[in-house]
Structure formats: C-alpha cells, structure tokens
UniProtKB/TrEMBL annotation:
Pfam families: FliG_C, FliG_M, FliG_N. It comes from Dermatophilus congolensis. The gene is fliG. This is Flagellar motor switch protein FliG. Residues 116-189 form the Flagellar motor switch protein FliG middle domain. Coiled coil: none annotated. Belongs to the FliG family. SUPFAM superfamilies: FliG.
Length: 336
C-alpha cells in the first residue's frame, strides 16, 4: 500500500512502533491528551503492515525531518533549494508538498488520498448531510466522481445540501472526520505483510512512560474501547502486581532497588503490598525501611508514582534478562 493512502494518524502510529518503546514513551510525553489517546488507540489497532509501506513511512519521515530542518534554517525557498540539490527537482517537489500538508492540514485531508470509487463505496450509505460536508472539502475532480456515483435521489439531496451549506461547527467536522477515518482504516491491506502493532508494542510503550502519561493513555482507551483497555491492563505490570511475584523474585528486585526509592514507592500503598516486600527482607532491613518511610512525612503523589516507576522498570529489566518470571493475566503471556 502506498503511504499516500495512509492517514497521518496511521503513519504516526507505524513510526512510533518502529522507534521502539523508550523513544515512543518520550514522544508521547510531549503530546496533548487527545493526541496521546488517538495515537495509542491507533497503535492498538495496528496489525499487519506491508514491508513497502513500512519502508515508505520511514523514508517519508526522514525526508520531512530534513525538510523541516532546512525550513527552520532558511524558510521555504532555502528548504526547496537544498532538497533540489540533494534529491532532484521532482522528488523535492513531492517532499515540499508533503511538508506543506503536514504543517497546515485541511479537514478530511486523508480522504484526498483515497481512490474516488473506493471513497464512494464508504460514503454511499452515509447521511446526505455527511456526504455534502465531505464533498465540500474534496478537490473538484474527486468530488465529481463521488457525486456522480450516488443514486439519483441521493445525488439531488446532496447537491441541494451542498448548495445551501454555510458554516459548520468545527466540532461537528472533527466528529465526522473521526468517524470516517475509523471506517476507512479497514481498507484492504496487502498480502505481503509484517506485524508491527497490536497489544505488545502498546504495552511496552506504556510501561516505559511516566505514570501521568500511563493514566492518560488508559483513561483515553477506556473512553474509546473499554474491552481493549481492560485487555491492555491485563498485560501490563502495575506496582500493586508486586504481590504476584514469588519470594525469590522479590528478593532479586530488592537487591537492585535503592532503599530511598523503595521507601517513597511504598508511601500510601495497600498493606498487602508493603507486607509482601518486608517479609522478604531481614528484620533489621525491614525496620530500617519502616523508619525511612515514617521520616519522609507527606510526599507528593507525583514523587510516589515516579519512585514506583523506577521499581517497575527494574522489574521489567530483570524479566527481560530472564532473572525473574512475571506472571501475566488476560490469556496469552508476552515473552520478553
């Protein structure tokens, strides 16, 4: 599949998975909540992406990154001149067009890359007002093919609504755009494909994120798809899941975690979590930890979550190294 047929959201999801969990987690921290929700949901929906598309997305990202760098250094003219010198006039024109589109994207931009006859198939059973709204944003040649392919009675109704259309709420436009983007995300994928998305990369990314980003992602997924959110949670390791580790694993973890991080991480946790930790320590070490916790006094929730993230990352590293085994819920287990 050509990258021209992919939405910006789908390209971004493919790119994040290819960048790996640590880089992806850092990127998600910089985004707004709606963007994080949309991207993580798209990553979860990714299954098979053909190799050519994968290469195309990475190449397009590299080209756009170069073009943006030149653009920032010297404006549009400078960017175009450098690209022409680097890759020739035709290729430079393509990159500059994509750069312009990425900087100012019109509503329903992703539909411009869909074959008109394919688009007609998806629009034909939509409400005439929706069809009219979409056609208003399409290039004239693409809109003409869609309109001409509708049933006569629908054609007339759409044409009438298009003619009398004045202003439409941006919120309505966004809702219709999101609805159609979901529907068209299932458009045929090539047979020669490789799995790049799904639950595992999403869980890996979340496990590398800070707790604020983690909550944002999971809350967003719950709003969009409760079953999917529950499946993601089932495959994640939460701090309270320490109670599910066997005693030997707990002892290995304790040898790797700084006492000050452990003390902060245990502030305000359930008693069974704290008891699971202390019973795997010597009596002297357990008393020392209790003293350290009491001396801390009130601690900001963010500090507690950061300390818990340190412990969780250590558990993940030990699991990946094969030094401990972490039981997973929700059916199939992930193999690190």
């Amino acid at each position: 599949m050509s990258t021209a047929q992919l939405s910006g959201l789908r390209k971004a999801a493919i790119l994040l998975v290819q960048l790996g969990k640590e880089h992806s987690a850092e990127i998600l921290k910089q985004l707004r909540e709606p963007e994080v929700e949309a991207l993580t949901a798209e990553i979860a929906r990714l299954e098979n992406v053909d190799v050519d598309t994968l290469d195309g997305v990475l190449e397009e990202f590299q080209q756009l990154a170069k073009a943006r760098k030149y653009y920032v250094q010297g404006g549009v003219s400078f960017a175009e001149e450098v690209l022409v010198a680097t890759m020739g006039q035709d290729k430079a024109n393509e990159v500059m067009q994509r750069l312009s589109a990425s900087m100012v994207e019109m509503p329903f931009e992703f539909l411009r890359r869909v074959e008109p006859k394919v688009l007609l198939t998806y629009l034909a059973d939509e409400h005439p007002q929706t069809i009219a709204l979409v056609i208003a944003y399409l290039p004239a040649d693409q809109a003409a093919i869609v309109l001409s392919g509708l049933l006569p009675e629908t054609q007339a109704e759409v044409a009438h609504r298009l003619a009398i259309m004045d202003r439409t709420s941006p919120e309505i436009v966004k809702q219709v755009e999101a609805h159609l983007e979901r529907r068209l995300s299932t458009v045929v994928q090539a047979a020669d494909s490789t799995t790049v998305g799904g639950l595992k990369p999403l869980v890996d990314i979340i496990n590398q994120s800070d707790r604020t980003t983690e909550r944002m992602i999971l809350d967003g997924l719950e709003k969009r798809d409760l079953d999917l959110a529950e499946e993601v949670r089932a495959h994640m390791f939460m701090f309270e899941d320490i109670t599910g580790l066997d005693d030997r694993a707990i002892q290995v973890v304790l040898r790797k975690v700084e006492s000050k991080d452990l003390a902060v991480a245990l502030k305000g946790v359930r008693e069974d979590v704290r008891e699971k930790i202390t019973r795997n320590m010597s009596e002297r070490a357990a008393l020392s930890l209790a003293d350290e916790i009491s001396i801390l006094g009130p601690v900001r929730l963010k500090q507690v979550e950061e300390a818990q993230a340190v412990v969780i990352r250590q558990i993940r590293m030990l699991e990946e190294a094969g030094e401990i085994v972490v039981a997973r819920g929700g059916g199939d287990e992930f193999v690190a």
